[in-house]
């Protein structure tokens, strides 16, 4: 099984990560607030950053703490996530600590630890949350988009709009569980290998490491609705995308990869047809499929990767900020995204493989390094010998201050 790790940054990210700990994922949390860090009781790997007693929703203060303590995060990842294939930074875009330091720290660690893959799980605030939370979100999303990394964008507003939520605590608790449940759908299962096709480890790695917005959903295919006139397998699957708690999909025909896990009786697989889906969402570079015997219900798990970031949701936030006539350092939030180049979405669809900063051969190379190894000799004593191992190294020296400068 592909090994996924979760690094919670700030209060919201730490709460999600604590759920991941319950399911056996490798976890760690960082915070600028000692009180918030103490509230996380299940996770042993905890790091306090800075001495300000929190960030107070101030992204600049969080960035300052990150610059002074980035080596703590770097060492935490090296020591506690050894053997992990991919690490997700988990944070809220509306707060101070997670929103302020996460994009910058992802930029740092992916360059200094190039043999690991990194992504993010970013949680958008509901529209009824404070104006500062909305402003932080706009600024944080701009930095995330610029990173070109795999990104799950969870949306508290969509949970409110579902009409099933009574209060804010319920939103947070339900979202925390929902995010980890989505990973469990493809990772933490006991599916029996199928001779009709499996979603194997390399398929999952490809899907989860694809840059751009990512969505995982599940659809239940009931016998009654399947027999209804006009039933469409594709439309039923697409309905799960719109009812998910991820930010709205753009449907702009930009998608890189799709994956589907079918837990259906084999006779129902004849209904599978992607014409309706591709007409709405576009033709992906690759489609991965796995077919398995159903446990109780007939379900389909969808994994969409390389989607355009939720521009319509971003515009909704900018409109809200504008309507409240918020003055913040003379920033023009109507044009804040104009200098973000997202042309790589279109270019990626025309390539057979995707390059990211983590595996681009123009930036990194495999080199052999010598290290000392000890073995027993005939006299039961240890003797030293020189061995070699391959490691991934940057081709040029990385200047941390240059990275930090991009976030000033």
CATH topology value of the domain at 4-188: Rossmann fold
Query: Can you give the mean pLDDT?
Result: 84
Give the helices and strands as they follow along the chain: EHEHEHEHEHEHHHEHHEHEEHHEEH
The CATH fourth-level homologous superfamily of the domain at 4-188? Tubulin/FtsZ, GTPase domain
> Which CATH class of the domain at 4-188 applies here?
Alpha Beta
Report what the structure shows.
With 408 residues, the protein is an alpha/beta fold. The protein has a domain at 4-188: 3-Layer(aba) Sandwich (Rossmann fold), CATH 3.40.50.1440. Helix content is 37%, strand content 23%. The chain is built from 14 helices and twelve strands. The protein has helices at 10-22, 34-38, 59-80, 97-112, 131-147, 156-161, 168-186, 201-208, 223-226, 233-242, 275-281, 311-323, 344-348, 400-405, and strands spanning 4-9, 26-31, 46-48, 86-92, 117-124, 150-155, 212-220, 257-263, 286-292, 299-307, 364-376, 382-394. The protein has a ten-stranded mixed beta sheet, with helices on both faces. A two-stranded antiparallel ribbon has the order 11-12. Strand 8 (257-263), helix 11 and strand 9 form a beta-alpha-beta unit. Helix 3 (59-80) crosses helix 4 (97-112) and helix 4 runs parallel beside helix 5. Residues 348-358 have low confidence and may be disordered.
Q: Which helices and strands occur, and which strands form pairs?
A:
Blueprint: E1 4-9, H1 10-22, E2 26-31, H2 34-38, E3 46-48, H3 59-80, E4 86-92, H4 97-112, E5 117-124, H5 131-147, E6 150-155, H6 156-161, H7 168-186, H8 201-208, E7 212-220, H9 223-226, H10 233-242, E8 257-263, H11 275-281, E9 286-292, E10 299-307, H12 311-323, H13 344-348, E11 364-376, E12 382-394, H14 400-405
Parallel strand pairs: 1-2, 1-4, 2-3, 4-5, 5-6, 6-7, 8-9
Antiparallel strand pairs: 7-10, 8-10, 11-12
